[in-house]
Amino acid sequence: MASTKLKTAVQVNKELMVEAAIKAVKERGLSENAAALEFGVCRMTMRRRIENPNPEPHGGKTKFPQWAEDILASFLLNCSDMGVPLNRYHCVQLFSELATEIGITKTSFEDHKFFSRFLSRHKELSMRITHATNRKKDREWTTERCGEYIQKLQKLKDGGFRERPEQVWNLDETAFNTARMYDRVVARRGVKQIPSQFDGNEKECVTILPCGNAAGVQLKLLALYAGKVHVQSRLDDTFDMIYHAVNSSGYMDQILFANYIKKEVLPAITELLTVIFVDGHFSHVNNLLLVRYCQDFFKDTGKRVEIFCLPVGQTNHLQPFDVSAFGGIKKKWHSYVCSRNALAGGMKRPFEEAPKKQRRPTNKQLDLQSGAMVTAGEFVEVLVRNEAAKAAEAAAKKAKRNAPEPKTSKKTSNSVPKKKMKTA
User: Fold this and answer.
1) Does the pLDDT value for residue 304 go beyond 70?
2) Which residues contact 391 (CB under 8 A, 6 or more apart)?
3) Arithmetic mean of pLDDT, 176-191
4) Separation in Å, CA 281 to CA 183, 255, 306, 315, 333
5) Which among 243, 206, 236 is positioned nearest to 221, based on CA atoms?
6) Residue 297's pLDDT is what?
7) Which pairing describes strands 221-226 and 242-247: parallel, antiparallel, or unpaired?
8) Would you state the pLDDT for residue 80?
9) Of the ranges 51-60, 227-236, 361-370, which one carries the lowest mean pLDDT score?
10) pLDDT at 386
């Protein structure tokens, strides 16, 4: 990228003299020495400029290639234009993810020099102070916002993305709390706080991510749990129709969302032009890994995928899953949470024998890499493979321990025969 910094008169004069000397060599036939003496320029500088008319700036190479830096700059500009600008911390995460994807290792982006030099190389970017806006006003459904939304939909229609139902895909996630923290109970009048115990953590939740298209095709949904390992009991009776994933919070992140799109949605796409409708969640909008997967999918198959973000604050009216599916499911889940502690056959009468606590069956766990998703069948396959590897390793150790020791000949100091003493 050419520098836009203003030059002094001396610098401009030197550049003009070099250009005049090169012109004299090419048109008048002067030698390089004669042209350098006539115009007062360095002969080596003139020779290098003749060999390379467009020299690149001197210095070490950048960590990213030029095409990667252009993608990063365009992505940061689009995020800013959409109203989700990234700060320095998010940019460092973005750089690290891209470096991992293209195979750049043993490098760090936490140094402030790299960030400042990246901004200096891209003049359209700069550090700015955000302007606080009212979230309530941003979520208002005005005539202007409605017109913009209809205009974007018409643009998709004109581009050929909404010709057939198979081209339109939709996915959305929702969270289910595993513990009921609030309830209406009978207590002493006048007491402000009523303590109540519950199982688990108040921050535990299960995130469900379904996906389907307008033709009625429903893909495997993703169930995201809070934790560190994959538990087999969570996949019981799922019949390989659900992907299981875990992370520290139980809420959707960029890696899991991009991996789900790559593993489940992209292989199911049959049209050359496809649009996927999502909401404005951070993991959907600020996801460079997802952009990379879509680009690779286009290079490999020639199928173009566009991610369309629904207007902020209007997903309860425009998102089909929120309108028709999630409401009834959450109502049934709430009823289940309320009644799951009730005993079978009704409540016990007072002074009767208390129910005995049943021992839970042994549960098996797998510790997979971050962003991994498994079904019930894949879980069993990985578990059997790991157990077979452990059994083989244990058998090899046992065989080595029970193997007889090889016999070795012991060398002694008396093994060499002594010469007989001569007697008189």
Assistant:
1) yes
2) none
3) 75
4) 30, 13, 16, 11, 23
5) 243
6) 94
7) parallel
8) 84
9) 51-60
10) 86
pLDDT tier for residue 166 given thresholds of 50, 70 and 90: very high
Cross-sheet strand order for the sheet of 304-309: 211-213, 168-171, 273-278, 304-309
Which class for 214: exposed (0-12), middle (13-18), buried (19 or more C-beta within 10 A)?
middle
Residue 276 has phi, psi (to 5 degrees) of: -115, 120
Q: How many whole angstroms separate alpha carbon 66 and alpha carbon 1?
A: 10
Which of 94-103, 267-276, 403-412 is the least confident region?
403-412
Q: What is the pLDDT of residues 193-236, one digit of tens each?
A: 777 665 555 556 889 999 999 999 999 999 998 888 888 888 88
| Statement: the pTM of the whole predicted model exceeds 0.70 | no
Residues 6 or more apart in contact with residue 315 via CB below 8 angstroms: 172, 279, 280, 322
Q: What is the mean pLDDT of the chain?
A: 81
Closest CA to 325 of 154, 170, 203, 180: 170
Query: For 113-136, what is each residue's pLDDT tens digit?
Result: 888 889 988 989 999 888 766 666
SS (H, E, C) the chain: CCCCCCCCHHHHHHHHHHHHHHHHHHHHCCCHHHHHHHHCCCHHHHHHHHHCCCCCCCCCCCCCCHHHHHHHHHHHHHHHHCCCCCCHHHHHHHHHHHHHHCCCCCCCCCCHHHHHHHHHHCCCCCCCCCCCCCHHHHCCCCHHHHHHHHHHHHHHHHCCCCCCHHHEEEECCEEEECCCCCCCCCCCCCCCCCCCCCCCCCCCEEEEECEEECCCCECCEEEEEECCCEEHHHHCCCCCCEEEEEECCCCCCHHHHHHHHHHHHHHHCCCCEEEEEECCCHHHHCCHHHHHHHHHHHHHHCCEEEEEECCCCCHHHHCHHHHHHHHHHHHHHHHHHHHCCCCCCCCCCCCCCCCCCCCCCCCCEECCCCCCCECHHHHHHHHHHHHHHHHHHHHHHHHHHHCCCCCCCCCCCCCCCCCCCCCC
